[in-house]
Write a structure and sequence with these properties.
The complex is a heterotrimer of chains A (583), B (217) and C (204).
Chain A (H helix, E strand, L loop, with lengths): L12 H4 L7 E3 L8 E3 L4 H10 L5 E10 L4 E9 L7 E8 L4 E3 L8 H12 L2 E3 L46 H4 L21 H13 L11 E5 L11 E7 L2 E8 L7 H7 L5 H6 L6 H16 L5 H30 L4 H21 L8 E2 L2 E2 L5 H27 L2 H7 L7 H6 L5 H5 L6 H4 L20 H25 L19 E9 L2 E9 L7 E5 L1 H5 L1 H7 L4 H11 L3 H5 L1
Parallel strand pairs in A: 2-5, 6-7
Antiparallel strand pairs in A: 1-2, 3-4, 4-5, 8-9, 9-10, 11-12, 13-14, 14-15
Helix pairs in contact in A: 8-9, 9-10, 9-16, 9-19, 10-11, 11-16
Chain B lengths: L20 H11 L11 H10 L22 E5 L7 H10 L5 E5 L1 H5 L21 E3 L6 H16 L21 E2 L3 E2 L4 H26 L1
Parallel strand pairs in B: 1-2, 2-3
Antiparallel strand pairs in B: 4-5
Helix pairs in contact in B: 1-5, 2-5
Chain C lengths: L3 H24 L7 H7 L27 E7 L5 E3 L6 H5 L5 E7 L6 E11 L8 H5 L5 E3 L10 H4 L1 E2 L1 H4 E3 H7 L1 H26 L1
Parallel strand pairs in C: 1-7
Antiparallel strand pairs in C: 1-2, 1-5, 3-4, 4-6
Helix pairs in contact in C: 7-8
The chains are: A alpha+beta (583), B mainly alpha (217), C alpha+beta (204).
């Protein structure tokens, strides 16, 4: 990892001269990077950045509430699809009725992220096509991530709470709440006449955006809800679909059914206490989530793990990628109707890898294994032998099996080829990442484009394909498993002996002030953590850029003019995990 | 520690019930063919899928198929965090299930809110709304732990005499009222408490206004 | 030939199906209900039936496995329990969802705190089995248990565990985690020897 990668944006004085005077200024706060842009010129600046300078991929938008300084910021990270580290710029606005111009006209991928900032922070985006709440529901009182909004079970501002020691008598939080439950009502309203309007708003938005009126025939287009409880195994996700017979005319995803306020809890936790919570974001790939968070914090503390720990991290991350793709392929085939057989074969391999995780970290799924500056427990030579046996003999054989009975299967090919096509221009505009982007013809893999950890030492190919349909995504995932096996073999060959932790793990880690954006190539796409620290043991702002959420922006465009039976297949090929989408 | 009372009735468990042969055979038939509803919310759902997969097969216990429709299911395993936005749907699903029906709360989140209990959008345990038969703690409970919980559920079946079965009683079984998503989740059974709370809030705001007027004049 | 892909797939499934019988015949009686059989079905070259038949066969858990916390005590001849915990409070501070409540003993005459927990509660409705309490305890007092069979019918009675419920003798811990226990005892012995050597030096 070179020094240039530690700071994520290309900051230079001469860059400011490309734009008219007064538009840009350097962000020179201690530990911060990037530029601050004047609010009125935001749209024009972003357009020039995309068209003239080639930054065509908007990675993440975050809102930050600086409560004591009475201002809010919106932070943007943009990158080039040809690779390299990107540019970060911010817009500053006040706390009372904050308003910022929306970037949806330039980058469609900003849609869900701006709705989330409106929902949780209350920043209004002008010209946004569909400004509704996304993670909480319509009618919810308040904007939860604001620093002056407290939740019903609020005890103290920061953990550790004083009530636990030395005079800690347990009281279930229900006992302190007037309703005995996790609810609060601050403003008076009439509970008997309240009507929940969220569903009607979705239906109206759907009709307004997609409904086509045929002049000659009186064709009725009707709305069908798919979810949140449905036989496919993707979690509590709801699609509201406007149908014309069996053809999908329009689709709107509704989520928030698993919103577990990860970011609000993250602001109350200390930095180390957040580690087990990151396990539960994308619960199938917990070690990847740990890696992204550890990298983001290590960018601030500038403590680097020793060599052996880096190799162990890479081995665990690649094993997690294999697990995730096995599960993804299994669930995709489950949706296609191959009732459970490929799923069970994939899960068998996953169980063998989970045995390794259990032996090394202590838990099958919620591994909580990485620490800032290393890993928690060492890997013994027996474990390495076990991994070697799997990777050199069993997994390649099983992959050949998968190839034999799936890749050539006529039913799979006829149901997946040409279904859910995503063009590369659409994919970049929608900020899609991961196998979804690579199957559409853009070979962007962060391990190659903007390397982190020690990935620049390994030889591997970036798996990509050109048609952009469901079959290609399936092939890309199979190929990625092969490349992961290749990386693990190299890591097992080169792993040195030595310590696994730089320094001692502090339970109250002191992190210097500043901000950092740590991004990794998780099996689902780009997983980014944006952390702002103000020298306290708790982060000021903690935001997760979830790949599954952003990839869902592509669902609408991929499902248009497909049959309703294909909607489930297309959703399966995107491979989402609701823990990440809703956080 | 403060006194605790769950919302709703806890199901009755009879310790030493002497069952006649008809009841024994009836319960034996029921306990060996419990069909769960295909319903998973979060991380615990993945462990439930692992329990259904080949290593810890639960079709050995008779849970042969996971039914997608609640009308055909006997058991709902609440696996994962119960959030406020999802609660009306869970209650509707429970109401649509036909008797005899059972609820298993799997994982810390379904038992009592879990590590996310302190948040603003998590319900602290599904037993706020539904009567739970077995609680399985853990985060997530390993598949062997879930199997032990399901065996305990089967043992519960074994101890039920006819007179304790609610579907054979004369009184109708009322569906659980579906909560409404207002400014915060509203439980319809507590609507009287809420009205009192609203009047108190209204009085507080008029008192504040009166104070201002009084100080102004 | 049309249908070739489907036929290949059916061939793979047929082979898996035949393996379930052939492997049983090949391995014989030792395949089920023995520790070797379980280990064989967990190795990288397992074929055939993959199921580990709980509750007759319980899959052994590795030493590092973590479930809910327990407190260790030494039991002397009279049956008095001396807990290793000194109520320092680090575990309750580091617990991410804050599920540990500790009341430190106070000397009734002087009013000064004593290194003993008077009350200690863990709420397993909130515990996320992360293992931080075990990792940061300086006295090897709180450990993560291996017992995963904790289902019950009533959470209000069973899910907030008090000091009595959390206590386990050190012999229990040595039984479930022999390797780690041996390492910890060696480290404790070394620390004691170093302390004794320092004290001797001071006396001299």
């Amino acid at each position: 990892m070179t020094e240039a990668n530690i700071r994520s944006s290309a900051v230079s004085e001469s860059f400011i001269d490309h734009f008219p005077q007064g538009w840009l200024s350097l962000d020179d706060r201690d530990g911060y990077q990037g530029y601050i842009i004047e609010k009125d010129h935001l749209l024009e600046f972003a357009r020039r950045l995309r068209d003239e300078h080639g930054y065509d991929y908007l990675s993440s938008i975050t809102g930050v509430d600086y409560f004591p300084e009475d201002r809010m910021e919106v932070v943007y990270h943009v990158y080039k699809s040809t690779g390299g580290s990107g540019i970060e710029f911010k817009v500053v606005t006040g706390r009372d009725n904050p308003e910022v111009t929306s970037l949806v006209s330039l980058y469609d991928g900003a849609n869900f992220q701006e709705r989330e900032i409106w929902d949780l922070l209350g920043i209004w985006f002008e010209d946004h096509p569909d400004p509704r709440r996304i993670l909480t529901w319509e009618g919810f009182a308040g904007h939860p991530l604001r620093k002056d909004w407290t939740e019903p079970y609020f005890e103290e501002d920061f953990k550790p709470f004083d009530s636990r020691w030395p005079e800690g008598r347990p009281e279930r939080s229900e006992a302190t709440n007037p309703f005995g439950d996790n609810v609060q009502f601050k403003d008076p309203f009439d509970p008997e006449t309240w009507v929940y309007e969220g569903d009607d708003q979705v239906y109206e938005a759907l009709r307004n955006e997609y409904s086509t009126k045929d002049e000659d025939l009186d064709v009725e287009q009707f709305i069908v809800n798919m979810g949140p409880q449905h036989p496919s195994t993707h979690g509590v996700f709801r699609m509201v679909v406007l149908l014309d017979g069996e053809t999908i005319v329009g689709l709107k995803p509704v989520f928030g059914y698993l919103h577990r306020n990860h970011e609000k809890i993250g602001e109350r936790n200390t930095f180390l206490q957040n580690m087990p919570f990151t396990d539960r974001l994308d619960y199938i790939t917990s070690l990847s989530n740990n890696l992204g968070y550890a990298l983001a914090v290590e960018k601030l503390t500038e403590v680097h793990p020793p060599e052996r720990a880096e190799y162990i991290r890479v081995i665990m991350a690649e094993l997690t990628r294999i697990i995730n793709h096995l599960v993804a392929i299994g669930f995709l085939l489950n949706d296609l109707g191959a009732f459970f057989t490929p799923n069970l074969y994939g899960l068998e391999e996953r169980e063998l890898i989970l045995d390794i995780f259990e032996a090394v970290t202590g838990s099958r799924m919620m591994c909580n294994y990485l620490r800032f500056g290393g890993v928690a427990h060492d890997v013994s030579s027996d474990h390495l032998k076990q991994i070697n046996a799997l990777v050199s003999e069993r997994l390649p054989r099983k992959l050949e099996d998968f190839d034999k009975y799936l890749t050539g299967n006529e039913i799979l090919r006829s149901r997946c080829e040409g279904v859910g096509v995503l063009t590369p221009e659409d994919a970049l505009r929608l900020s899609v990442t991961g196998p979804l982007l690579r199957a559409s013809g853009v070979p962007y893999d962060i391990r190659r484009a903007d390397p982190y950890s020690i990935y620049d030492r390994f030889e591997f190919d970036v798996a990509w394909n050109v048609h952009g349909d469901t079959y290609d995504r399936f092939l890309v995932r199979l190929e990625e498993i092969r490349q992961s096996i290749r990386i693990i073999k190299q890591a097992l060959r080169d792993i040195p002996d030595g310590p696994i932790q730089t320094g001692k793990v502090q339970h109250q880690a002191r992190v210097p002030a500043g901000e950092s954006y740590g991004r990794i190539e998780s099996p689902k796409g780009e997983l980014g953590y944006y952390i702002v620290s103000n020298k306290k043991p708790n982060p000021l702002r903690y935001h997760v850029r979830a790949p599954s959420l952003i990839n869902l922006s592509a669902l609408e465009i991929m499902c248009r003019n497909q049959k309703i039976a294909d909607a489930v297949v297309i959703l399966g090929s995107i491979d989402i995990t609701l823990g990440e989408v809703d956080r | 520690m403060s006194e605790e009372k769950p919302v709703g009735e806890l199901p009755v468990v009879l310790e030493e019930a002497n069952l006649n042969p008809v009841e024994i055979v009836y319960n034996w038939g029921r306990r060996n063919s419990v069909w769960p509803l295909m319903f998973g919310l979060a991380c615990c759902a993945i462990e439930m899928i692992c329990t259904a997969a080949s290593r810890f097969d639960f079709s050995r216990f008779g849970m042969e198929v996971m039914r997608a429709s609640p009308r055909q299911a006997d058991l709902i395993i609440i696996a994962g965090t119960v959030t406020k936005k999802m609660t009306p749907q869970i209650v509707r699903l429970y109401n649509q299930m036909a008797e005899p029906k059972y609820v298993v709360a799997m994982g810390s989140c379904a038992c009592g809110g879990g590590p996310f209990k302190e948040g603003y959008s998590v319900v602290s345990g599904i037993d706020r709304y539904l009567p739970v038969d077995v609680y399985i703690p853990g985060c997530p409970p390993t598949p062997q732990s879930l199997l032990q919980g399901l065996i305990m559920l089967q043992e519960k079946f074994d101890k039920q005499p006819f007179k304790s079965m609610p579907w054979y009683q004369k009184a109708p079984i009322d569906p659980v009222p579906v909560p409404v998503l207002g400014p915060d989740l509203m439980d319809i059974r507590r609507i009287e408490d809420m009205k009192i709370h609203m009047t108190r809030l209204g009085k507080a705001s008029t008192a504040a206004v009166g104070l201002e007027e009084g100080s102004g004049s | 030939m049309i249908g070739k892909g489907i036929l290949q797939g059916l061939g793979v499934t047929f082979r898996h199906f035949m393996d379930t019988y052939l492997e049983d015949i090949r391995a014989g009686k030792k395949r089920y209900r023995t520790a070797d059989g379980i280990a064989a079905r967990r190795s990288a070259d397992t074929r055939g039936i993959f199921t580990i038949q709980y509750p007759e066969e319980k899959m052994p858990v590795p030493e590092l496995f973590r479930y809910v916390p327990i407190l260790l005590y030494e039991e002397d001849e009279n049956g008095e329990k001396e807990y290793r915990c000194t109520a320092c409070g680090i575990c309750s501070k580091v617990c991410p969802p804050q599920c540990i409540w500790i009341v430190r003993t106070v000397n009734p005459e002087t009013g000064r705190p004593l290194p003993n927990p008077e009350e200690f509660y863990v709420d397993i409705d909130i515990c996320m089995n992360c293992g931080f309490c075990e990792e940061f305890c300086p006295f090897d007092a709180i450990k993560m248990d291996h017992d995963y069979e904790l289902s019950n019918y009533n959470r209000f009675e069973n899910h907030i565990i008090d000091l009595e419920g959390l206590g386990r003798p050190i012999s229990y811990y040595a039984g479930i985690k022999p390797g780690i226990f041996a390492e910890e005892e060696a480290a404790r012995a070394q620390k004691k020897a170093e302390k004794a050597a320092k004290a001797e030096k001071k006396d001299k």
